[in-house]
Amino acid sequence: MGSRKVLVVGAGGREHALCLALEKSPSVASIMAVSGNAGMEARWKCERIKNGDRDAFWEVVERNKVDFVLVGPEAPLVDGIVDFLAERGVPAFGPSAMASRLEGSKVFTKKFAQEHGIPTAPFQVFTNPTAARAYVRKLDHVPVIKADGLCAGKGVVVADDIEGALGAIDAILERRAFGDAGAAIVVEDKLHGQEVSIQAMCDGERYVLLPAAQDHKRAGDNDTGLNTGGMGAYAPAPLFTPELAARVRTAIIEPTLKGMRERGYPFRGVLYAGLMIAPDGTPNLLEFNVRFGDPEAQVTLPLIEGDFAEACFACAEGKLDESMVKISNKHALAVVLAAYGYPGNVRTGDKIDGLDKLAGKPDVIVLHAGTRMLGGDLVTGSGRVLNVVGLADTLTGARDRAYEAVKEIRFEGMHYRHDIGARALGPAK
Ligand code: AMP
Ligand code: GLY
């Protein structure tokens, strides 16, 4: 057994997947989380603190003699949690606040991409709503409107008509729906094609690409309904051929790592590139995230072999060796089970049944997200409740395993998409 005492920051399916990957790592002695969910609590120590309470966080780190931290979500990264820990001598896997601007500011990222020749949609930046409206009215196409800062996934408006784009400008710049995160906007051309999520584990200079994943953002089958945090994913995505991977490496990942290094902010952690692959095969950058995707982590972390914790530690120390991250030949597919009302007003407290039938089932992993214990029962706690992951030698097999397992689980109001993987496999059976 190893000696590393690792703490995971976060409470969703991504963080549950991180804990499982750490558990498979020989270098790890103990795992704990701040704040976790019912699934994580059942297996690892979890402590609850108020989001952003640095004193309470540091007290947990010290008392538990934590010597390595993995940060799941973007908000604490942008907020400088990695710098905070570094100043106190505790290494963490994740970028500094300055490097986290790649997710924390869309204006920063668009200008960065422009400067370094990284392919991305043409754009303009506005802080003045009158100027923004005048610009949009003159366009002969409908642009995408993006708030500059972090908006919990709600700051991008892909409108169907000019009125919709003007409405987004009003909401963000005029009414400040996202507060200071909407002090500036990016107005950019709409891109068409297929989206793919690329995650690279980076040490500032070297990097390893993880299997490409495809997320399903709309709530309903066939990409209908409202946008969500993600209703399912699969990896590897067959769309991401070796030729495309080579282009993404040289056109997007490598210039980004080089550019950040040159600016004095080497990027350490997971660089997530959300790409739109044009019909002619050109990869365009939609956005960067500075952490694992959710639900992309749920389908990529189970494919990592070798000592994941050691690879994360090497990234934090600037000593990554590609051989540290081995990828299995399997395929993974995750179906998100959502609560009644999601992605609108969510009802919580519904009792979840059937998980016992899946315990020990090979190649099925149930990752908790919005779950909690209530009077001895496992109940729904937020919109995305569980991720059911199937693993198999083929994508079809992974899909069948995941959907067979879904049949065992029940709670009032449970809903999910029936077509996860359809883009790669054709419509569901
Ligand atoms: P996020 O920043 O993850 O909330 O991204 C929002 C989503 O908006 C992306 O996953 C795309 O589906 C879409 N999107 C963002 N920018 C564009 C664009 N220029 N053209 C078309 N769709 C876009
Ligand atoms: N699945 C998209 C994200 O994590 O932002």
Walk me through this protein's architecture.
- It contains 14 helices and 24 strands.
- By secondary structure, it is an alpha+beta fold.
- The strands form 7 sheets. A 5-stranded parallel beta sheet has the order 3-2-1-4-5. A 5-stranded antiparallel beta sheet has the order 12-15-20-24-21. A 4-stranded antiparallel beta sheet has the order 6-9-7-8, sandwiched between helices.
- The model has no long low-confidence stretch (mean pLDDT 96).
- The structure holds adenosine monophosphate (AMP) and glycine.
- Glycine (GLY) is lined by residues 215, 230, 289, 293-294, 296.
- Adenosine monophosphate (AMP) is lined by residues 121, 144, 153, 156, 158, 188, 190-191, 195, 274, 286-287.
- Tell me the strand order in the biggest sheet: 3-2-1-4-5
What is the C-level CATH assignment of the domain at 4-97?
Alpha Beta
Quaternary state reads single chain
**Uncertain segments:** none
Characterize this entry briefly:
By secondary structure, the protein is of the alpha+beta class. The chain is 29% helix and 27% strand.
